[in-house]
Every structure is written in C-alpha cells, then in structure tokens.
Amino acid sequence: MSPFILYSILIAILVYVLIKLGSLSSGRRLPPGPRPLPLVGNLPHLGSMPHQSIASLVKKYGPLMYLRLGYVDVVVAASASVAAQIFKNHDANFSSRPPNSGAKYVAYNYHDLVFAPYGPRWRMLRKISSVHLFSNKALDDFRHIREAELAVLTQTLASAGKAPVNLGQLLNVCTTNALGRVMVGRRVFNDGVDPKASDFKDMTLELMQLAGVFNIGDFVPALEWLDLQGVASKMKRLHKRFDDFLTTIVEEHRNGGQEKHVDLLSTLISLKDNADGDGGKLTDTEIKALLLNFFTAGTDTSSSTVEWAIAELLRHPKILTQVQRELDSVVGRDRLVSDLDLPQLTYLSAVIKETFRLHPSTPLSLPRMAAESCEIDGYHIPKGATLLVNVWAIARDPDVWAEPLVFMPERFLPGGEKAKVDVRGNDFELIPFGGGRRICAGLSYGLRVVYLMAATLLHAFDWELANGLIPEKLNMDEAYGLTLQRAAPLMVHPKPRLSPQAYKAKN
C-alpha cells in the first residue's frame, strides 16, 4: 500500500473518530439503531438487499432508526405513522437531496429534476414537467399514442408463435416507444429485437443497479478518489453512453427540417431562450437531464411493475380468471382496452394496488436531506442527516396489513380492510411513488401506463410459463437496485383470446 493511500485512510479514520466524539458530546437523543463499526459505520449491515436488511433491523430497533454510514447520519422511516409525520410536518425540511455520485456523474451534476437541489431551478423543471407532460390535458392529448403502442405490442405477442418471449424486454420497448413519441415525436426503437432496444434496456438496468449501490465514496469522502467499488468509473462510462444517446436524439430533432413537432422536446427547445418564472432560462444540459429522467424513470419502472403483476397472477390463477372476467364484461372480445375503460375496472385496480404494495418500483425512497435539525417522535434528527423511507417495509408491516405477505387484491375492494387507500401519496401505508413535495413527478403518467398496459395484456392473452414451468416454481426473487427488478426475467407463452381483428395495430 502506497504511503499516500495509507495517509488518506488514517486521515479518514481520524475525522470519523472526531465526528463520532462530537456527536456523543452533543448529548442529543438519536433514534435507536445498530452499533456502527469504525470508519464504515453501518454500511456492512446493509448487505446485498438493503431494503430487506433494513426491514429486518427495524424489527429490532423500531420504525424510526438511526444508522451511521461512514461519516453520514442516516435516519430510516419504516412505518406509515413515522412517514406521515415526516411528510406532513417536516416535508419542507427534507426537500433537498444529499450529495451522491449518481447525481454527480450520471445526472449531469444535479442539473436534472430528480436530484436538483430544492429551490427556483427545481421548481422551474417541475413546472415544465407538470404542465407539458404530466398534466391531465397532456395525458389526455397523448392517449392515442399509448393505445397505439400497446396495439403494436399485442400484435407482436400474438404473432410470437411457439417461441417463449421475454416479457420484460417487450414491455420496456413498448413503454420507451410510447414515451419517445410523446417526448421527441417518434419511436425510439423499431421492434422488440432492435439491438438498440436491448442496449437501452441494459443501460437502464445498469443505471438503476449503480444508483442503488451504497457507494463508500459518498459516505467517506476522504476515500472517494480511490473508488474502491469501481462505482464512479462505471457511472462515468454509463453517462457517456446515455449522453451519446440523448445528444443524437436532440440533434436529429433539431435537424429535422421544417417539420413541426408537437412533443416535449420541441417545447423544451422553445423554452431554452425564455425565462420561466423565477428559475431562469432552460439550458441544453437541463434539456438532456430531463430527457434522461423521463426515459429511465418513466420506462423501466412501469414495465417492471406490469411484469411483477403478471407474474403474481400466473401464481394466482383464480385471481387472473376474475380479472379477465371483469375485462370481458367491460370491454368485450372484439377490441382492445382503452384508457376510457379504466375507471370501470374495479378489480383490476385492486390487483395493481396490490402489486404496488408487494413490489414497489422504488423499495427505498430516493434519499432526502435535513436542511436543519429537527425532532421526530422525541428523537433528535441532526442537520444534514440523510432520510430514507423504506417503502417496501411499510407496505409489509403486519401491524397495518392483514396477512402482509399474501397477494390479496380483495383488501382494496369495497368492504376490504384498505378499500379507501390510494397510491397517490396521501395514504402513507402505501406510497410507491413517495410523498410530499418531492413525490414522483410522473405519478399520473405512470399510473395510466401501468393500468392500461396490464389491462391490455391480461385481456388480450392467456399466459403460460416457458419450458413447462409450473406457477408454484416461478422464481419471485428480487434483484436490488434503485428500482425493484425481478432477479429472473419472466419468460412466457402468450395465447391470443380475442377476435382476430382486435390485434390489428393502430398508428
């Protein structure tokens, strides 16, 4: 070991000890938690599946828990009551993000919507997104695009023949093309076997995996330059791939001649030279950063949720039969599902809520940071502390949910234990999109995509697992990342169940 590296480690240990002594001398009562180790703190306690490891620790230390990750104070909220206190009483205090390598190296150095510091620039980006992409009017205006891309998907599945299909891959292509038509006025990929589609899926998965890593450099800054886990170097390479992808899209759009586009990118370019409120002018970097947010957060989360839903229904054939019976009653068998049908699909809605409960797309909320010290449940929360909300643990809390590990959509039906619970951030026992002012900006868009996609596939096809696998043996393990992926892709045989004319693609 070189003297410089040894010196860096010794300095890091010294700083850690001084910080630890300072926190002990403050005399403030921190929430309970496991004893931290020297230098790395509780990082080893997180394991390979942090949302599960933290949920296990919560059983011992309680729903408001303190961890020390390197030099960083971390507070974990793991119950609906604690989450409610934070989002109702302390939301403004926890409205910014802590420093992290993902925002620095991938998300254009905090110039995106997801990681931008709370303030005028963030409000400007949020307003642009809310008005031009996620408003009810925008969602209604682009309804035909979502339906058309799902018609393409059903045609692809209907012509699959005897070969099994990787459902997650096809869902990702569909969601990306639908979003691409809304954002940049065209499909991004040609079809389910387009090599670029596979590359994009791989890039998105790598991003979610890297973003979910608890990088030592984020928590022990003196060791950041060593990049002990190789996370920073991987993020830099990934950013280059994403930037090339996005730059090509932007340049092709700008060089598209005199053709007039009605899409988000055209709007963003038009806003580039116009100040928007108190946020200033939109920059090229922010345009690409917004596209990065939408293409990653708006595609893989939706497609993985639908993949989980179909996997659960394959394991629960009676529930699947009931869903299809409702769909046939509302829609019939001569056409595909429309957005306009969704309000009548009560049982399907319960199935999707139950999928969000057991398989939240973001099991640990994106971290927030305390702008000032505060008190929650009688415990001191230090200024600068990172807040993590364990969405996965909250939705499996046996004190709140009857038979929490059982897939039981009936709990959300009229007369059920959670009949009035919704996923829009106001019912804190079920917050797959987060809560408060930094709730997922694309919540409404994501809900429409997930509901319509699930309804279309469950209505249009019967499903069998590939290679004769029986549903009881289906692998339901999770692969941890920023988003909750299946450890093994869902390989299935789709079997058309509607009239042949229903599978004709729309434009």
Automatic annotation (TrEMBL):
It comes from the Eukaryota. It is a single-pass type III membrane protein. The gene is F3'H. One of its GO terms (cellular component) is endoplasmic reticulum membrane. PROSITE patterns: CYTOCHROME_P450. Belongs to the cytochrome P450 family. Catalyzes the 3'-hydroxylation of the flavonoid B-ring to the 3',4'-hydroxylated state. Convert naringenin to eriodictyol and dihydrokaempferol to dihydroquercetin. Keywords: Flavonoid biosynthesis, Heme, Iron, Membrane, Metal-binding, Monooxygenase, NADP, Oxidoreductase, Transmembrane, Transmembrane helix. InterPro entries: Cyt_P450, Cyt_P450_CS, Cyt_P450_E_grp-I, Cyt_P450_sf. Heme binds at residue 440. Its main location: endoplasmic reticulum. Its cofactor is heme. The keyword tRNA processing does not apply. It is an enzyme of class 1 (oxidoreductase). This is Flavonoid 3'-monooxygenase. It catalyses: a 3'-unsubstituted flavone + reduced [NADPH--hemoprotein reductase] + O2 = a 3'-hydroxyflavone + oxidized [NADPH--hemoprotein reductase] + H2O + H(+). One of its GO terms (molecular function) is heme binding. Its EC number is 1.14.14.82.
